[in-house]
Design goal:
heterodimer, A: mainly alpha, 76% helix, B: mainly alpha, extended
């Protein structure tokens, strides 16, 4: 695997996740899309570390931050889903009109 | 073998990612995402970061099991017994994500990337540990606060009634007889 191929894999994961985050109606499925996008970022950071700057730890720190972002996104996503389901019996974004800006 | 395994993992990661949005069953979608993210972890390990790869895989297993429970609890078609579509603006989303993919791939091939500087240390886990407890300490502190805020925020959001909902801001108020109707003065 070359640097370019790994980056293409990361771009593919990010784009598939973006499609899910934009197109899905269910809040939990949107969260799945965001997870895939962050997965792409993890692969890209690992590729940058391995192929460009393995002597420094910056790529690894980006991966740690991305993994934390995944955990935060899941926890807050489930909490928001629970809150809005309890309040409105809603688990679809199209029905959550209260959140419209 | 050294180049075949990352390629196989990469293809599986992409296929799993696509399957997530193609499955009718929510449980199957969750496990497709688990497959995809485990392959991401495997890819990270094969790129020379075994610690972060294993952490990613372990975290994803736990996350996806929790997600499967939430999927089955909340969603309308958990078993996928009826084919259904839960998409809105499919064409626009496809166009936008395809454009983003094309732009990213163009950037990957057009940007003059710098040459590799230095080599990996003998132990990459020590490298990230030293960075997080040394030069990147501020990053680690911020991540810690973010996680603490998430724990508090998620608990507050997910709790049906909080202390203030039941007792108001009078801290010395006597405990009401349960069950209460809920809310101050309600």
């Amino acid at each position: 695997m070359t640097f370019e191929l790994v980056c293409v894999l990361a771009a593919g994961l990010f784009s598939v996740g973006l499609f899910g985050a934009l197109s899905q109606q269910s809040i939990v499925m949107i969260m799945m899309g965001i997870e895939l996008m962050v997965g792409g970022i993890i692969v890209a950071a690992a590729a940058f570390w391995h192929f460009l700057a393995p002597a420094g730890a910056d790529g690894q720190v980006v991966i740690v931050a991305a993994v934390v972002a995944m955990a935060v996104e899941m926890a807050m996503g489930f909490a928001v889903t629970t809150a809005i389901y309890r309040a409105r019996q809603v688990d679809m974004t199209d029905m959550a009109g209260d959140l419209k800006g | 073998m050294e180049s075949v395994l990352p390629a196989v993992l990469g293809v599986l990661a992409l296929a799993g990612g696509v399957l997530v949005f193609r499955c009718d069953s929510m449980a199957r979608a969750t496990f497709a995402l688990l497959l995809s993210l485990c392959c991401v972890g495997g890819e990270v390990a094969l790129l020379g970061l075994p610690y972060l790869g294993v952490v990613t895989v372990l975290m994803m297993i736990m996350e996806m099991v929790v997600m499967a429970v939430f999927m089955i609890a909340y969603m309308m078609n958990p078993a996928g017994l009826m084919p259904m579509s839960m998409l809105h603006n499919k064409r626009g989303s496809l166009a936008l994500s395809a454009a983003v993919f094309a732009a990213l791939v163009a950037a990957v091939f057009l940007v003059p990337w710098p040459d590799r500087r230095g080599g990996p240390p003998p132990d990459t886990t020590v490298q990230v540990g030293r960075a997080l407890m040394g030069g990147q300490m501020l990053t680690m502190i911020v991540l810690g606060f973010v996680l603490l805020a998430t724990m508090v925020g998620a608990t507050v959001l997910a709790t049906r009634r909080g202390r203030y909902d039941r007792f108001g801001d009078a801290l010395d108020r006597r405990t009401p007889r349960d069950p209460v109707g809920g809310g101050v003065g309600r």
